[in-house]
Amino acid sequence: MNEILRIKNLKKIYHNKHGETLAVDNFSFSLHDGEFVAIVGPSGCGKSTILSILCGLENKSDGSFKFKEGTKIGYMLQYDSLFNWRNIIDNCLLGLELNNNLTEENKQNVVNLLETYGLKDFIESYPNNLSGGMRQRVVCI
Which fold has domain 3-67? Predict the structure, then answer.
């Protein structure tokens, strides 16, 4: 089987004015094509931290990870992270804006996805005007 992801000795330490909190220590793991994996553990054990590091939302303190070339990853946060002051289309375009990849073609792809997921009529709406399920669909885009 093809290896899609290899994590080796991943470590994450959070620092604050009171000291340090070790969130993840010496985590190693390999994921192969065709495998289905669940990360299970008690609250505060580092599950979300690991996923945030893999998605580039957090920096690791030590260790390494490598995805097979061409692999794309995404994950749904526990709570949606839509900005209430940005309408739906602007929330969906934020990642492209931050990565300097906002082109007319990419914007049209996002609009097409919103239409595909039944959100065409809500493109100019704000998150507080959407149901919970609609908000979750927006976050997936």
Answer: Rossmann fold (3.40.50)
